[in-house]
Amino acid sequence: MVKLFLLLSGENPTLPFSEAISILEAEGYHYQILERMSQVLTIEAALECVNSLGLRASMTRICGLHLFSCEADPDQIFSRIKKVDLGQIIGEEDSFVVRVKRLRGSAMEIGRWDLEQKLGATVFRKVKGVRVDLENPNKTFIGILTGKSFILGLKLAEIKSKPFTERGPRKKVFFHPTAMPAKLARCMVNLSQPKKGDLILDPFCGTGAFLIEAGLIGCRTIGFDADRRMVEGSVQNLSFYGLDPEGMAVADARSLPFADSSVDCVVTDPPYGISATTLGLRTSDLIDAFLINIVDKIKKGGKACIAAPKDVGIGKLAQKSGLVHLESHFVYVHRRLTREIAVLKRD
Prior knowledge:
With 347 residues, the chain is of the alpha/beta class.
């Protein structure tokens, strides 16, 4: 077990934290939460968990080895770094750089560039033979100013946002305006906590966003939609990414052709809005009927992650159907739509 820090994305106040913890849970890592700050989570866990976070996370930006935390005060910062045994972290033949990130306007009285230079000079003096490389270092020290705190760590993994952008709704072979962004789709898949090889069901598959993200982390997938055009479009999109689902079919989510306890997780975004097909039903009635049908299809202990407009009250509807409501997150889309993303469990 080592002490790690996770630098999280700032697009939502709760989703990045829950996604990171969900990945650790899904992968079976023992962990302890040490501190939760604005966009930063420090944990104690096995070093190997960094690989899983790097492969799966969409809302974590950097994973690193935590060296120290202190108040965002230069005197405290330089006092603490002098006590770190840097020789255990960086060798004589290594090159390095120090990068300081300021989150949400934290500690504006501290000059970021000045802090980088002084921290870099400290590392250079403490470890003989190391050299500074601003372009291609093999070790990167990350300093984070967040709130009234400062954290220094060694970067172990960085999750780039570009692959998610390249899988955006308009980049796919088949497009529909209601499609879920790849980053949020990946996050929702992670919130349902599947393991590699688990069977993920999306009963309102649309353009296949959830099935693509689940497939890319090694899950088996199956999708349905009441609109044949959507099913055919999902197949095209999955094929474009080299993914082969277990099955795709036209079906009504209120009466799915599935045996009880046959899927590990459900991840879906039921239709709503003027561009969606709701079979002539109100969104809340469609979701209510779907939940009643789906509860027995999920294996005991399995989870579902479902998005719906906030005013539908998906968490309350789920409890009425017999699912346990674990948590909800809220994502502002535009003036007329805020999504509630609910994580549910079958007892």
